[in-house]
Each structure stands twice: as C-alpha cells, then as structure tokens.
Amino acid sequence: MDVQEIQHRIQELVEEEQALRGVDPANEPEKHAAELRRIEEQIDQYWDLLRQKRAKADAGQDPEDARERPVGEVEGYRQ
Q: pTM here?
C-alpha cells in the first residue's frame, strides 16, 4: 500500500467516524461504541504505517518495508 492509498483510507475512515458520531446510539450503545473504537484503532494503525513509511524514506530506506502493526502495539504508544 503506497502513501496515497494510506491517506485515502484514513480519509474514508475519518468520514465513517464522523457519520457514526452523528448517529443516535439509543438502541445499541455498546455496539455503537465498539464500532467507533474499531474505526479509531484503524485510523491509528494507518497513521502509524504512514509515519513508518515517511521515516524510512527520510532515512534512505525502502518505505515498502514498513508493516502494519497490531492494534495493541499502536494503541500502546498513546499511554
């Protein structure tokens, strides 16, 4: 996945997140919260992948060597 594809996917997920935030979760608040969390985690994973690719390119390495990391690893950076 190249940088442009990653940026496009991030934009799609952000739009999905915004739409979901505009929905009243009255009937299934747990499902709504879980879906928001899943989208946020995916956004974080794609941002992490994008940063990896940029860092590798800046360091003269092959950006294609960057790999998507597991949610637990990416989310662990925030703490």
A: 0.89
